[in-house]
Amino acid sequence: MNDFREITWKSPEGLRLFAREWGDAAAPRLPVVCIPGLTRSSRDFEEVAPLIAATGRRVIAVDLRGRGLSEWDSEPARYKPATYAADVVALLDQLALPRAHFVGTSLGGIVTMTLASRHLGRIAGAVLNDVGPVVASEGLKRIATYAGRPQVVQSWADAVAYARRTNGVAFPDNTDADWELFAKRLFREDANGIPVLACDSRVFRPLPSFLVWLLSPLSWFLFRKLANGTPTLLVRGALSDILDAPTVARMRAQAPSMEYVEVDRVGHAPMLTEPAARAAFERRFTTAP
Predict the structure, then answer these.
(1) Which distant-in-sequence residues (6+ apart) come within 8 Å of 267 by Cβ?
(2) CA distance 29 to 26
(3) Chain-centre distance of CA 244, in angstroms?
(4) Could you identify which of 25, 178, 233, 242 might form a hypothetical disulfide with 174, taking C-beta atoms 3.0 to 4.6 angstroms apart as the criterion?
(5) Is 118 helix (H, G, I), strand (E, B) or coil?
(6) 71-120: per-residue pLDDT in tens?
(7) pTM attached to this predicted model
(8) CA nearest to 243, candidates 137, 167, 147
(9) Ranges 136-145, 177-186, 236-245: which has the least confidence
């Protein structure tokens, strides 16, 4: 799980960005780029990435700016999908990768759709993990209860409690060990050994304008461009409060060739190691170019 290599690259503005890499960097098959959710990092892919790499691919999971080990932006207004997409293009250019498959969880899926607006030719295939052109209101209300708010965390026990409190609805079957691992992916230790969220709280500041984008016709246009322009797989957690069933039905109607998988007993967002998701990934990454 931890057998990865570190990659750093520069954003167009010069920020130092970080990624984890698995598999053979010289593998002949097209690589896979994994993009995490709003407050998450490349650590979310540390179990699924080796599974993909086992199909003979190079797998790169990124920390978006302001998350994980990537540098925080001094201009919070730049925390938006278009900026993140430009950062991913910079990574592809630095590594001399003309094309790749993309796996995007939540915000990562929106970044992938945004990337398709100008660089569809660089996307060989896409996985949208529990995300669509709109966000269900129930999920938005839940996120608003903790997004960008100060958290009183003094110990790893507090961090585990926070992880369980904010994500328990999505993972009702998680064990204590699962929540400890979840917390370690959400937090890092500061100089005093106190857990702190591995995310710049200011990533939420551009959220109102971001939600306007989600509610606009542009979001559906970008989804159609991606899903009808390249092989796409949609994964949904059956308990998701972010991607609801009516949105899924509309997405499938607008992209009839899109593959769809639903993960039982999981909400937003599947970790992609669940049996249904794992089987879909094995089919896709074993047979795709």
Answers:
(1) 169, 170, 171, 237, 238, 239, 240, 241, 242
(2) 9
(3) 18
(4) 178
(5) helix
(6) 999 999 999 999 999 999 999 999 999 999 999 999 999 999 999 999 99
(7) 0.96
(8) 137
(9) 136-145
Contact assessment for residue 99 and residue 122, using Cβ atoms and an 8 Å cutoff: yes
- The 3-state DSSP class for residue 57 equals coil
The tokens 């669940």 sit on which residue? 274
**Taking Cα atoms as reference points, which of 208, 198, 257, 260 lies closest to residue 235?**
260
CA-nearest of 65, 61, 62, 92 to 78 is: 65
- Nearest Cα to Cα of residue 281 among 259, 266, 264, 265: 259
Terminal Cα-to-Cα distance of the chain (whole angstroms) = 25
Amino acid 101 reads H
Give dist(CA 26, CA 58) in Å, integer: 8
Encoded tokens for 130 = 């529990």
What phi-psi label fits residue 130: left (phi over 0), alpha (psi between -120 and 50 degrees) or beta?
left
Token couple for 223: 């989804």
- Judge: domain 5-136+202-287, CATH 3.40.190.10: no
Sign of the C-alpha dihedral, residues 81, 152, 181, 194?
positive
pLDDT tens across 250-289, in order?
A: 999 999 999 999 999 999 999 999 999 999 999 999 999 9
Instruction: Encode pLDDT of 202-258 as tens digits.
Output: 998 766 555 655 656 789 999 999 999 999 999 999 999 999 999 999 999 999 999
Tokens describing residue 138: 């129930």
- Dist CA 43 CA 75 (whole Å): 25
**What is the C-alpha to C-alpha distance for residues 237 and 123, in angstroms, rounded to an integer?**
24
In 187-273, where do the E strands start and end? 187-189, 195-197, 232-237, 259-263
User: 131 with 105: CB under 8 angstroms?
Assistant: yes
